[in-house]
Amino acid sequence: MNSASDTLPGRTVLRQRWTGLFFAHWEIGAATAAAALPAGLTPDLHEGRAHVGLVGFRMEALRPAGLPALPWLSWFSELNVRLYVKDRAGRPGVWFLSLDCDRAPAVRIARRFFGLPYEDAAMRWSHRDGARALDCRRRGAAETARYRWRPSGPAAEARAGTLEHHLCERYAFYAARRGRLMRGRVAHAPYRISPASLEAEDACAPMRWDGLPGFTSGPPPALVHCSEGVDVRAGALEEVDA
User: Fold this and answer.
1) Whose CA is closest to 223, among 163, 171, 169, 170?
2) Domain regions of the chain by residue span
3) CA spacing 20 to 30 A to 148: which of 56, 125, 134, 169?
4) Could you tell me the fold of the domain covering 12-239?
5) Which residues contact 172 (CB under 8 A, 6 or more apart)?
6) Tens digits of residue pLDDT in 74-112
7) Helix (H) or strand (E) segment spanning residue 209
8) 92-101 and 118-128 strand pairing
9) pLDDT, tens digit, for every residue of 33-81?
10) Coil/strand/helix, residue 166
């Protein structure tokens, strides 16, 4: 069950804010999703269908709990490719194929201490006239992925049982650290999401960079939403029985 929680079962180790998010989703084959996952995880399907998500946002005021945010270091852009999964106990979460980021120290810290596949990228973020834009070019990539989005309807919490709730209301992620499957949990208020219009130049580039089959021709996303953002608390990683 993907239920929202403003509290963590353990202590808070990190605080942050995710702001100006867009969520773009494509349907993919369950076998394709399963092939990209480590032992111990399986695709978490909605009505028999698997999805891959592309999520762009600004990270703001990232800091250890009890300490102040640091100028420059605690603010950066991210563009994440993620699959929807569950572990052997049936607990839902996300598995990241990549997390592009324009802050090199954050990339190094996340890769070393959290086992997350962060990638160095040149990114540009803007917000003007009700629209947001994010450009991303991963180090070593030949092209730049460009996105511009704005809400096209009112914001509301996703209803339990809907596809939107299944995709957006995720409160755990899985990672591989030193050969072990780990689970991290986050807490925040439910997203207030709006349907969104998305203009994209090579929207599928990040999935192609990750080697995910089926994205060479660049199909448009089936579902796009956006959110103003949420304040987030994160707990310590815990080992999962794989």
Assistant:
1) 163
2) 12-239
3) 169
4) Acetoacetate decarboxylase-like (2.40.400)
5) 91, 92, 93, 94, 183, 184, 185, 186
6) 999 999 999 999 999 999 999 999 999 999 999 999 999
7) helix 205-209
8) parallel
9) 999 999 999 999 999 999 999 999 999 999 999 999 999 999 999 999 9
10) helix
